[in-house]
Amino acid sequence: MDVIHIVVESCQTNRKAYVKTVLQKLVHVFNSNERPLSTFRCYLADVTSKGAWLNRSSIIFAGEDKWSVDPRVSIVSSIGSKREYSLQIQNVDITDDGQYTCSVQTQHNPRTVQIYLTVQVPPKICEISPNVVVNEGSNVTLFCQAKGKPEPSIFWRHITPSAKKTETGEYLVITSITRDQSGEYECNAENEVSFRDIKKVKVTVNYPPTILEMKLTGMGLGRPGLIRCETAAVPSPLFEWYKGEKKLFNGRQGITIQSYSTRSVLTVSNMTEDHYGNYTCVAINKLGAANASVPLISPSTAQYGVRGSGEVLFSCLYLVSAVYFFLISLY
């Protein structure tokens, strides 16, 4: 809907005639999904008056004669009214923005009506960076361009739990990017006309593997055993398993290996003495590798170790007692 604001009305005189100039401001919000229509009202003083419409300095109509080649413009009047001399523009767009003048020529009282049409356009993001894949430590520049009237303002947000505004302007520059800065970045374009327009860019940060955890489950003789290797890496790593220096393979020696995007699980279906030893998980991607080891100790070895510790403790107590009695005998 058109909203008309009367800005000022002034009267000027000269030696020949009284000229009345009316200044109006017409604000029209343009939406590309609509086919908007604007009508600029103007009235002749009487049936003998002559009128003309101008856009800036170009004549659109002189009386009933159309000078403009634009098929969207026409002269309209209310039914039964011979004085109305209004200009109508169909399918208003941003190129119609500007000043329009209705000049009414009479014998005694020339009159002009000046209307300034402001076409406001909601923000629209017309160009944005494609999704980005970079290595950790690289510099990244994201770009977002929007159109609208008034000119939209642009700000960026990193879509995190806090989702705070990170930067203002068409360009977002990230120096020495880290893995924590990966994810979606949101470009917001807004002006006073309508709701903001939003588009997103996904930033993927590649980094070498890190072993986060090695976890054991079971491992008793004659029972199933499991080792889980948890990692962090982008892109997802390939996994290798070793027992000592020997590489292990899925489906051999009663061992099953299942690998996923960030973890690998080694399962022994039935633990025997031969399965005990030092196991190493290796995670590899194009940026590097990481490994971690965990010992699987035989229950018989563990029991022997307990007995051995007890024997050492008993020997220490015997030695302390002997020294104590020796010192007493001296006194």
Automatic annotation (TrEMBL):
InterPro entries: Ig-like_dom, Ig-like_dom_sf, Ig-like_fold, Ig_I-set, Ig_sub, Ig_sub2, IgLON_domain. One of its GO terms (biological process) is cell adhesion. Belongs to the immunoglobulin superfamily. IgLON family. Residues 39-118, 123-204, 209-297 form the Ig-like domain. Pfam families: I-set, Ig_3. It is found in: Cell membrane. Keywords: Cell adhesion, Cell membrane, Disulfide bond, Glycoprotein, GPI-anchor, Immunoglobulin domain, Lipoprotein, Membrane, Repeat, Signal. It is a lipid-anchor; GPI-anchor. It comes from Erpetoichthys calabaricus (Rope fish). This is Neuronal growth regulator 1. The keyword Membrane applies. It comes from the Eukaryota. GO terms for cellular component: plasma membrane; side of membrane.
